[in-house]
Design the sequence.
């Protein structure tokens, strides 16, 4: 994604701020809001969102949003100006409330500065999740990501790799039905809301070829686990969904799936793989899920939502 005059944004711009993502989610043109901030004629950044009943949500129909910047090391006055300028533009447009779902702080070096600007501008933290990510940037090219795993997880992966296995890129048809069925059954078993609908996944993949990947793990020819992975920035992947099939196995194939997903992300040039928040259906911390992610190399950070009344 670029600014309206074609200027490039950091990391190519967040997938969730791309107009095609709004198209995918059926957002009416009249509800879309966009602000570009410039200083001395130079683009600083862009903030997008969706306005509904006087409330702007940056990150609507998405895990998060927030400003896209041109630089990852912008001067503090540039970021303060972007946030204050966006707030002034929102008030001028009659928006009475802002909900900004901030991206994880590891996404760029500028994220802590953005958080300072939000707080300085009068926004407050209204929600916070434990988010976890795997940092691939320190691994030499070609290094097996399981070097980041705990010892017992590496053993599980070594054992699983002795079996016939493949991670298949799903394009549609019966494979997509199977993939979606694995996700839906797993989430239902854990009392979670349904995953993204099957037809949505098919349309999303078509809208963002190469950036939205649907992956099915087969063990000994049988579907064993599935993952939905978005390339949210040029060098950042996000695991939107992943789950294993309930086949009565002695050990879950999730360790192998994690290893294969991370290896695939590394081959495709990702420096970071966002595994998302670890929470239960009621929003409380899921300590078991957090521990699993930690065991496959993930590090923690806080994913926050900032809010403010503007009237």
Sequence:
């Amino acid at each position: 994604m670029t600014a309206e005059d074609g200027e490039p944004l950091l990391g190519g711009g967040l997938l969730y701020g791309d107009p095609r993502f709004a198209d995918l989610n059926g957002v009416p043109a009249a509800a879309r809001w966009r602000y570009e901030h410039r200083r001395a004629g130079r683009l600083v950044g862009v903030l997008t969102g969706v306005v509904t009943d006087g409330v702007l949500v940056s990150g609507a129909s998405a895990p998060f949003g927030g400003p896209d910047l041109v630089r990852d090391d912008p001067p503090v006055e540039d970021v303060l100006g972007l946030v204050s300028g966006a707030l002034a533009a929102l008030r001028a447009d009659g928006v009475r409330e802002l909900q900004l779902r901030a991206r994880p702080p590891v996404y760029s070096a500028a994220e802590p500065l953005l958080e300072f600007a939000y707080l300085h501008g009068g926004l407050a933290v209204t929600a916070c999740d434990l988010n976890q990510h795997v940092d691939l940037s320190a691994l030499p090219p070609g290094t097996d990501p399981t070097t980041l795993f705990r010892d017992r997880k590496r053993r599980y992966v070594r054992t699983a790799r002795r079996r016939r296995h493949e991670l298949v890129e799903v394009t549609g048809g019966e494979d997509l039905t199977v993939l979606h069925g694995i996700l839906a059954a797993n989430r239902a078993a854990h009392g979670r809301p349904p995953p993204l609908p099957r037809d949505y996944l098919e349309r999303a993949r078509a809208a963002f070829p190469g950036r939205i990947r649907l992956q099915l793990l087969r063990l000994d020819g049988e579907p064993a686990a599935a993952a939905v992975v978005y390339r949210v920035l040029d060098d950042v992947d996000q695991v939107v969904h992943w789950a294993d099939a309930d086949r009565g196995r002695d050990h879950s194939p999730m360790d192998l799936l994690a290893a294969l997903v991370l290896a695939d992300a590394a081959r495709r040039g990702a420096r970071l793989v966002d595994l998302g928040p670890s929470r239960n259906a009621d929003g409380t911390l899921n300590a078991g899920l957090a521990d699993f992610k930690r065991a496959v190399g993930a590090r923690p950070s806080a994913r926050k939502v900032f809010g403010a009344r503007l009237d």
Notes: The longest helix spans residues 76-92. The mean pLDDT is 95.
